[in-house]
Amino acid sequence: MERGNRIEAYVRRAGVAAGIALVAVLVLAFRVPDGRGTLGADVIMSISPTGELGLSKSGPFMSVTGLRPGGSFRGETTVHNQTGKRLAIHLRALPDSRDLDRVLQVDVTAGGTPLFRGPLGGLRGRTRAFELASGERRPLRVRAFLPRGLKRGYAGRIESVPLELSSTVEAGRA
Amino acid sequence: MPRKLLLTMLVLGCFAVVSGAATYSAFSSQTSSSGNSFSAGTVQLTDNDAGTAMLSLSNAQPAASDTSCILITYSGSLDSTVRLYGTVAGSLASYVTLTVTRGTDASPTFDSCASFSADGTNYIGAGNGVIYQGNLSAFPTSYAAGLVDPTAGSPESWTTSETHAYRFVVTLQNDNAAQGQSASASFTWEARNS
Q: Which of A151, B42, B152, B168 is the most exposed, fewest CB within 10 Å of its CB?
């Protein structure tokens, strides 16, 4: 009889232990896992024509979502001198925040001539000028990238970067 | 019996601790919204004349004429309506006929009209695309009196990067009273977003 009670006690304890283990497994199994991913940067670059300068493509002409270190994106539009005079043309960026000023690298060329290469913040100032004769057209190419090995400063950033064209008349030249 | 009660409380306690910890971690989870920014819109209208005059009549005789085309570009971010008006001076303005035609230009180069194409609408009954025809002296001289683009009945809402070309033709009338007189004019397109 005493032996039967002892066995019953063991079974009860085993049942309790199994119940606890089951509850623990269920609680752990249904926990929301920690996030381990890294967000990239979303960037839109846009450009608008001016009275003097027409564009083959205007508005948002290049964009990227989830840009990560080592990634790049590019865009191209053709600039057309619509005036009757030779123009010196500059480009600058007017980003809506300074989040990517140091980390996003930008490369701008006009018909193969380099105009700017460096961080986005540097493009807030005007690029080198390129000249267009009256009626002349030239492709404007922009490439932007995040350097490999970049650790911080880009994750989850969303930035709109309007590019602004400006021109001055080259005196006495058409 | 007390032992059973104790054991039951122990089991419930363990359950509460484990599930409580999970609940706490869910409540302490965070997310953030950074980089919020605020900016005002723009209203901006430009042309392709690069500071050069459109029209010129020099030592003109009756029926002498000059034609010029100009491209107007809207680069503002807020949709706007546009009016055209001018400033006219000099007595010869009463003897000069001005015709303004609205259209498009596939390959604009100031002040050539080689690729100008008039709008297909007869806005004022003076031919396709014509928005003004009359004496230069009668051209509206203020925004309030200005020509609503293209017509007051159906004003165009200009959007970012929208362009329209305008052909201006001036002709000296065959009137003896015009002899030796002179005039000057400037033309203004003004955009307003309300």
A: A151
Q: Which of B1, B109, B115, B159 to mutate to test the interface with A (most CBs of A within 10 A)?
A: B109
B19 located within any domain:
no
How large a percentage of chain A has pLDDT more than 90?
76
Instruction: Tell me the C-alpha distance between B112 and B128, whole Å.
Output: 19
- Over its C-alpha atoms, chain B yields an Rg (Å, rounded) of 34
Residue B38: inside a domain, yes or no?
no
The DSSP element (H or E) to which B64 belongs, if any, is: none
Q: What is the DSSP string of A6-17?
A: HHHHHHHHHHHH
Q: How far is B84 from chain A (nearest CA, A)?
A: 16
pLDDT in tens, B142-171: 999 999 999 999 999 999 999 999 999 999
Largest CA distance in chain B: 129
Cross-chain Cβ contact B160/A48 below 8 Å:
yes
Taking contacts as CB-CB distances below 8 angstroms, the residues of chain B near A101 are none
Among A residues 61-80, those touching chain B with beta carbons less than 8 Å apart: none
Domain A41-169 has CATH 3.40.50: no
Residue B26: its chain A contacts at CB < 8 A? 32
CB within 8 Å: A48 and B161: yes
Residue B98 lies in a domain: yes
Is residue A51 within 8 Å of B52, Cβ to Cβ?
no
Nearest CA among A104, A94, A95, A96 for reference residue A153 = A104
Count of structural domains, chain B: 1
Residue of A99, A167, A75, A77 lying closest to A130 (CA atoms): A167
Residue B89 is assigned to a structural domain of this protein: yes
Q: What is the pTM (predicted TM-score) of this model? A: 0.77
